[in-house]
Amino acid sequence: MEGDAEEQSSESGGADWAELTHECLTNIFSRLTFQDRWRGTMLVCKSWLRAFKDPSLHTIFNLDPQFDPPPELPTWWTPNFETKIDSMLSSVVQWSHGSLTEIRLRHCSDRSLAFVAESCPNLEVLSIRSCPNVTDDSISKIALRCPKLRELDVSYCYEISHDSLALIGKNCPNLKVLKRNLMNWLDPSQHTGIVPNEYLNACPQDGESEAAAIANSMPHLELLEIRFSKLSAKGLSLICERCSNLEFLDLSGCANLTSRDIANATSNLAKLKEIKKPNFYIPRSVFHTERYGHWRLYDERFQTDVFRI
C-alpha cells in the first residue's frame, strides 16, 4: 500500500509539472541559465516548447558567455558553425515577435542579420564580433530599419567598411557605444591556426576613412574602442574634436599614434574618464634609451617611426 501511494504521488508530481500554466512555465524558464533553457526545457513536451518560444523570453539574445573565456576554436570559423549560429539567431528573431532589443553573438552572417533588420525595429544593442561574412549589405539594412540602436560592436568584422559606419551614425542618433577593434596585426601569430590566413590578411587599411566616418556621424558617442586601428594623429584629432562627449577611449595597439599625439588630441575632452593607450612593447635597449634618460621622450621620438605603415 505504501509503495502504491508513493507511486501515485510520483505520478501526480509528474502530472503537475506537465500541467503547469503557460505563465508559470515562462516565469520558471526566465530564471534558468542559457544552457538549461536551450538544452533541456524545449525538449520535455509540447507545452514546455510553447512556453520556451514565448516572446517575453527572447527580448535579449546573448551568446557571448558561450564564447568566453578565450582561446578561440578553429571550428568557430567554419561554414557549418556559422550556419548553426544563423539558425539560432533566426529562430530567436521569429519567436520574439519584434520584441528583441539586444543581440550579442559571434560568427553570424548577412543571412540572419538581414532577418534581424526586417523584424527587430526596437533593437538597441547589436554585438557581432568575428563575423567574416557580415558585410555592408546587412549593416546598411540595420542602419535604415533599427533607428533605436545605442550600442554597436563590429570588432573583427573585416567586410564592414567606413560607409556602413557613416550610415549607422546618420540613422541611429542614439548611438553611444561603438566598438570597432581589429585583430593584432602587429603580432598575428596569436591568431594563426585559428583564423583563416586570408581573413587575417584582409585587415582593413582605411583607418583615416573610418575615423572620419565616426567623427562626422557619431557626435554623441560616450565609449569608443578602436584597438589596432590604423588611424593617424589627424584621424584621432578629428574624432576628439567632433565627439566631445567621450568618456572612455581604447586606443590599444594603435601603432601610428604617439603619446604626444594622444595628449594633444584628447586635451579638449572634458568628460574623458579613462583612456587606454597603445600597449605594444619594444625593448628600450634596441634604441639605447639611456642616452635620453626619459621613457616619455623615447615614446615620442621612436615609437611612430618603428611601426609606421
TrEMBL record:
Q: Which residues form the F-box/LRR-repeat protein 15-like leucin rich repeat domain?
A: 105-170
State the name under which the record lists this protein.
F-box domain-containing protein
Under the heading Pfam families, the entry gives: DUF7885, F-box-like
Residue stretches making up the F-box domain: 22-58
Alphabetized SMART domains for the sequence: LRR_CC
Species annotation: Stylosanthes scabra
Q: Which PANTHER family match?
A: F-BOX AND LEUCINE-RICH REPEAT PROTEIN 6, F-BOX DOMAIN CONTAINING PROTEIN, EXPRESSED
> Which domain of life does this protein belong to?
Eukaryota
